[in-house]
Amino acid sequence: MIEVHNLTKRYRGGTAVDGLTFTVEPGRVTGFLGPNGAGKSTTIRMILGLDRPTEGTARVGGRPYAALERPLTVVGALLEAGDLHPGRSAREHLTWIARTNGLGRARVAKVLEQTGLTEVAGKRARTYSLGMKQRLGIAAALLGDPEVLILDEPVNGLDPEGVIWIRTLAKRLAGEGRTVLVSSHLMSEMALTASHLVVIGRGRLLADLSTEEFVAAHSGSNLEEAFMRLTSDAVQYRAGGTR
Ligand SMILES: Nc1ncnc2c1ncn2[C@@H]1O[C@H](COP(=O)(O)OP(=O)(O)OP(=O)(O)O)[C@@H](O)[C@H]1O
C-alpha cells in the first residue's frame, strides 16, 4: 500500500504538489493521471525518498521510504530517466544492483525471464531499443520481488507491442496482490490499464475514483476529452505562466 497525506512540495518559483492525500491499494492497477507539469513525478520522487516534502508524509508498506531496511524488497520503481551504463549488459546491470542490495543471483535470472530479456541479457545496453531499456528498468524494479511497484510514464515512446506488454504486466503484478501505481498523461491508455484512477492537476487532487465510475460518468463522450475538461483549469493556469 502507498499512503500519501497532505503531501506538499514548494519550490522558490511555486508549488509543484499541493496538499495531496490519497491511498494506493494493493491488488489493482491505479492510474496516476495529470497533464504535463501536474506534479506526478514530484509526488513519485517524494514517495521514493528522492525529494523531501515541504509538508506532509508519504508511506510505502506502512513506513516512510527512509525507514525501510531493505527498500528494494518493499518498493520497485521505473523512473523516466534511467541511469543505464551504455557499456554494461542487462545481466551485469542487474547483478550489480542485486549485489549492492543483498539480493541473491537467482533473482537476476528470474527477472530477466519475467521481462523477456534472457536471450539478450549479455548484450551491451547501448545496443538496446527503447522498449528493451524499459524492460530492463522494469526488471530492476522487480529484482527485490517488492509488494509495491511504481512506474512513471512507462509507455512514453513505446511502440504498440511495448505498450501492450507494459499493460499486461501491470495487470499481472496487481493480480498477484501487489500495489501498482502507473503514472501517465494519457487518459485513454489508463482506461485500458488501470481499474482505479487518481487524477491531479496543478499539484492538487482532482479525482480519486474507479475507472468504471469515470467511464460511466462520461459515457458517450471521448475519454480523453473528458479528462481534458476535468484538468482544464490546471492546464490554463500552467499556460498562463502564473505558477
Ligand atoms: N527542482 C525543481 N525546481 C523548481 N520547480 C520544479 C522542480 N521540479 C519540478 N518543478 C516544477 O513542478 C511542477 C511539477 O512537475 P512534475 O515533473 O512533478 O510534473 P509531472 O506531472 O510529472 O509532469 P511531466 O509529465 O511533464 O513530468 C512543474 O511546474 C515543474 O516545472
From TrEMBL:
Swiss-Prot/TrEMBL keywords: ATP-binding, Nucleotide-binding, Transport
Gene Ontology MF terms in the entry: ATP binding; ATP hydrolysis activity
Protein name: ABC-2 type transport system ATP-binding protein
Residue ranges of every copy of the ABC transporter domain listed in the record: 2-227
Similarity remark: Belongs to the ABC transporter superfamily.
KW Nucleotide-binding (keyword) present: yes
Pfam family, one: ABC_tran
Taxonomic placement: Bacteria, Bacillati, Actinomycetota, Actinomycetes, Glycomycetales
Organism domain of life: Bacteria
InterPro entries in the record: AAA+_ATPase, ABC_transporter-like_ATP-bd, ABC_transporter-like_CS, P-loop_NTPase
